């Protein structure tokens, strides 16, 4: 599935290309919860979005970034995302590798997430309780593998 951007210029560029492929379904943009569910149901995420580069690894999904650079270099360094650019042959090659090589897939899907373990709110509540003298502080976050 390919959620289409609302920008008419983006649609005018993307739709003619995507409509040629019977295995690509274009859909309207999703709300946040629906989009997270779609990422969780995906095997691989291809994106240019910085936010998605942070979210998808938390779901244990490899991310191929369709850009030449990223404002999330720590994700590339950690190995949760791979910059593949916009060359169609390279994109296909990288997707094929992740589809055909379980070790390559696991190397990205199970690597420690540089953005934390998803327990920040729990730690914040515990820290406040500790400051108030009514609870124990939790250990600091350590990056963890996606779930």
TrEMBL record:
<dbReference type="GO" id="GO:0008761">
    <property type="term" value="F:UDP-N-acetylglucosamine 2-epimerase activity"/>
</dbReference>
<protein>
    <recommendedName>
        <fullName>UDP-N-acetylglucosamine 2-epimerase (non-hydrolyzing)</fullName>
        <ecNumber>5.1.3.14</ecNumber>
    </recommendedName>
</protein>
<comment type="similarity">
    <text>Belongs to the UDP-N-acetylglucosamine 2-epimerase family.</text>
</comment>
<dbReference type="InterPro" id="IPR029767">
    <property type="entry name" value="WecB-like"/>
</dbReference>
<keyword id="KW-0413">Isomerase</keyword>
<feature type="domain" description="UDP-N-acetylglucosamine 2-epimerase">
    <location>
        <begin position="2"/>
        <end position="129"/>
    </location>
</feature>
<dbReference type="Pfam" id="PF02350">
    <property type="entry name" value="Epimerase_2"/>
</dbReference>
<dbReference type="InterPro" id="IPR003331">
    <property type="entry name" value="UDP_GlcNAc_Epimerase_2_dom"/>
</dbReference>
